[in-house]
From TrEMBL:
Residues 6-153 form the Phosphomannose isomerase type I catalytic domain. One of its GO terms (molecular function) is zinc ion binding. This is Mannose-6-phosphate isomerase. Zn(2+) binds at residues 110, 112, 137, 275.
Amino acid sequence: MEEVRVFPLTCAVQNYAWGKLGLDSEVAKLVLGGDPAAVVEEGKPYAELWMGAHPKGDAQIKDNRIARTTLGEWIAHFPACLGSKVKDTFQGQLPFLFKVLSVNTALSIQAHPNRELAARLHAQFPEHYPDNNHKPEMAIALTRFEGLCGFRPAEEILGFLKSVPEFHALVGKEAAEELRCSVGNAVHTGQVLKKCFTRMMNCEKKVFVDQLNMLVKRVTEDGAAGKDTSSSIGDLLLRLHSQYPGDIGCFSIYFLNHMLLEPGQAMFLGANEPHAYLYGDCVECMACSDNTVRAGLTPKYIDVNTLCEMLNYTPAPASSKIFPCVQDASDPCVSLYDPPVPDFSVMRIQVPPSVKQYTVAPVDSASILLVIEGDAMATSVAALSDITLSRGTVLFVSANESVSLHVTCTSGMTMFRACCLL
């Protein structure tokens, strides 16, 4: 059946505890849209939709002419569907994993290793680091999306050391003073930030739990008295503490940029960039890996030494962490998010209500197309029959194939497409 080169997928759902519950979750809504017979349980978290061929969540091909098989098996049989460049560069594997995330409570503060470190960690601790690949990733907001990303400018961190005595106590007087003296010398600031962050992360548990309890008590009392708690980011602190009481990660909000992305805005998380997703829905694309070094806001294994050693300590403002998209020169409906790694790119396709015929252009890479809004009838020489597209439909499109859409709704369409543009 190699001649069928465009087909719909049934994708794996991950029910991690941090996901939004039932139909509050964008993941659950998309699953239901893609399959009206699907059952969504109200009290159950629907955290991630995995669109790809990762062994922990390989998509099923939904085409009755193809015997029950997964996308990973299909690619192994017909690697030409990847496109020749992608096939050769990534050893016959789909190089990316495409996801939708619906975040209700914070994910752990984490960073992903570069290729070199990933290989070393995997060789030393395979139980914690399951593969030897790097894991750059990009999140594009579907709803207002909140996260932490990268170290704040030194001036902001010094502001918190001044206004949050409990934070100052963990970092220590000497390191705080060193940071103050380093301002203006970027290289030195990075070195001192490493010292400050490492000191905090290595604090004795009793010490930091006592300081955290004092801080939470003070912020709670100030809030109740109607005082402004923004100088200690009181609202976020209390929210994270309620989710992860007694967790050192609660203090990381004074080191890391607090990001608020509007729909369509993106964050790119390169190797060694500390980050955490806090709340909201996004599409995410990443290199096909599962390697994560955690630092807090988690009950999972925390590898403090590796984390403190590997992080990128370059301070930068929150605004610099927003990753820009570029309008496609040949198609006004397409915005391209093209990060500085070869493994993946994402296109946002917005078809306006006035356009009824639209062609998803061929690219020299296998791609995965997700419909977020709108309805259409899709035809492709490579599909051999029409495919109905609606909210939640996921389509695999082999390299160099185009798909013609006859839009059947009045409100236009929004789609995201992941591919590998070498």
